[in-house]
Amino acid sequence: MTGAAAGTPTLEVTGLVSGYGRVTILHGIGLAMPAGHNIGLFGPNGHGKTTLLRTISGLLRAGSGKISFLGQDITNRKPREIVALGLIHVAQGNQIFPDLTIQEALRLGAYTPRSRAREAENQERVYRIFPRLKERRRQQIRTLSGGERQMASIGVGLMGDPKALILDEPTLGLAPRIKEELGDAIRGISEAGMPLIVVEQDVEFLMELADQLYMINHGEVAAQIRPGEQIDHEEIMAMYFGTSAAGGPPSRGTL
Amino acid sequence: MNALFEIFISGLFSGSLYAMMAVGLALIWTTIGVFNFGQGIFATLAAYLTWQLVDAAGFELPLFVSIVLALAVMAVIGWLFQLALVRPFIGQPGIVLTVVITTLAAFTILENITLLLWGPRPKQLPPLIPGNAEVLGFGIAAHQLAIIVITPLILLAVWLFLNRTRTGLALRAVSQNEDASLLAGLNVPMMYALAFALSAVLAGLAGVFFGGLKFMSPTMGTEPLVKALVVVIFGGIANLTGPILAAYLIAFFEAAATYFIGFYWTPALLFLVLIVTLMVRPEGLLTGRSRRLT
Amino acid sequence: MTDGAEKRGGRAVLPAWMPLQGRELAAMAAGALLLVLLPLVITDTYTRHLIILVFIYAIVASSWDLSLGYAGIFNFGHLALFAIGLYSYALATKFGGVNGWAAIPLAGLMAMIAAAIVTVPILRLKGIYIILVTFAFSQLVLQLVVSQSDWTGGTLGMTGVPSLKLPGHNFIRDGKIGYYYTALVLLGANILFLRIFVRSPLGLSIVALRDNEEYAVSRGISLARQRLLTMVASAMFTGMAGGLYGAYVRNASIEAFGIGLLTLILSMVLLGGTATIYGSLLAGFVLVFLDEVMIDLGAWRPITIALLIILVMLVYPGGLFGGLRALAGRLMRKERT
Fold first, then answer.
1. DSSP letters spanning B215-275
2. N or C: which end of chain B has fewer CB within 10 A?
3. How distant is the Cα of B148 from the closest Cα of chain C, in angstroms?
4. pTM for this structure?
């Protein structure tokens, strides 16, 4: 059922224009995720990272442009179709289903027919990656801590039997210790073979996960760090705040 | 003593009907976030459809079959309702008011169609169980008893559906976080349709139950709707247990008030109590602004 | 802020306190003149009857727009205020012997009191609850009226309600001229009132509350007080219109509580576009005549109106007249805040 030839990029976005009502946020953005690699997205808030993810996962309409996943065109398809194809978006914030128990939420995650068939083994996988969730599985999500809710969100995403996982700011607002725990878990998911698209403020965190990074600014790719390129802290700061040293157009203004 | 028993039974009976109507409203509110002013007409239509199938020459089907068929039609009508009157406005900011207006308009249309098709003269459905029964030494219509017993079972079935089935789980999820539901691969429009269909079936049941005991007329839908409104004002609309409890309480209150101070003054008293309650809890009777289906 | 005559672009304009200015004033005057002279052209009493209805319903609709459109209060009990005015007039004149001309303001007062009563529970409620409470209120008032059938005639209503009287002029046999001008004057007063209200600090604060409640409250505007005042203000002319209606048709029936009238008036508000004043009047002409054209259609009448409402909501959520107003806005000065 994969149908994707080896070497087909996992995800490819070209010329994407999208926004909210009359406000255009993405101005023809493009990126490519080569097979077998993770990508990371970073950049100032409100500049299109979440908009980009929501357009990819079908929550937002694209005005123009193309998105393809494993060789298939998913532009403007319904969210549930995209989920069925295996691209799963774990959204920002962790307000998922406050009144469901962890167990119920995980069960819900396995809604599509394909994921339903593998529900038992995926559930085991989630509990193995996040033992805390297993401990608390009968608790309502509302009663969990921020970090646990984030784990639950990712768990629900995994239950969808993804072929690639999008994580939108998974460590946002978390204390350093839980952030590390979560980071280990995410790295484990990646090492087990799951392609990841991760949005994060913490660029160093990103660099441990992905060797290809994109900086999104003003709804466009302002800078790109390709696999194998070395980059240091100062250069990142420069990208954020002033002229770009790593190539690409200078960013237009400060935060 | 006889009077007390009558009040009790009357309260249980009306409470059953109100509960089903109110649960339907709560279902739609929690999952879709709109208020269905057409809820009353589902009761009317179901009653008349059943009557048509049972009574009219050429059909004369057994009561049970007629009811099932009528409810099936109601589910379809419920689905059509949300398709035509709610879906087009999803995402618009003023959707609550818009849907109130469109469903109210649909209520008018269907009520008048009922009038056209069946005429204004009152009709009656055969009772579920004919004759009388005896409970604790008091006489009671068997139909009433049946309703009083069946309704809690129906409500329990609804609860089981929501909490023990995957589809019910999906409905609850949609009511809690629609975006996350979309991202989990749920077919959210189908959930809307389901909520409306289920709601229509519940209201339809209320109508059929009512028609077996009292006279049906094309305008019979307004009163249960208004009562259901009062119920959700008291009991909240954010979950299911609140309205159910409130339904029975208000029905008892109504029955007692009617007995003691008469039919004239009961509505005024009810409203007075409503005002006072809202003054004491001015934020309305919701605990927080969330709407969840628990 | 100047309070005398201002000079703008070299042309003196009217004092700033006058509610109507410039081109709008001219259009209003022209329209008023047209309506005043109309009975000279239209001598057929049936058409005059329809126009009287338009005037009365337009008062109700535009007042409803005050609470619904301008203040954003989802008030679904507005028609009950009309009915309260109607029954107040009927009871006062028939049983209380009150003179018709005094009974009309009395009707307005009763409606205002009722509006105050219904506002108390909704002072701080959220949208959906306001709909529920106000609608329940209107139904409960209906039940009250029906239950006091000794006075109100119950479901049969009241007949023989006295008409307005003037020495030397018989309102009943004058080809409806008397009522025509009375209704027109009331409508004019209503429009004037609405314009003043909407432009007043109170009116502006109401719109501010509607558009951004938190901000307005943080600037010291009291939500409860403004809501109360708006509801009472919207009731005043509505009640009087109800009284006038009672005087005109000389009976009172519970049809005034009915969903049929509700959908008609609501469609006037929607067609006219919310938060406009003249929209209801224009829509009123369209709808009342449309409604009467369909009078032989029996039950199809409310069906058609209701279908029209749904269509309008689907096609033009901003009101059908929203588009026309953009054109009209170049003739009149824009009055939407």
1. -B-TTTTHHHHHHHHHHHHHH-SSSSHHHHHHHHHHHHHHHHHHHHHHHHHHHHHHHHHHH
2. N
3. 26
4. 0.81
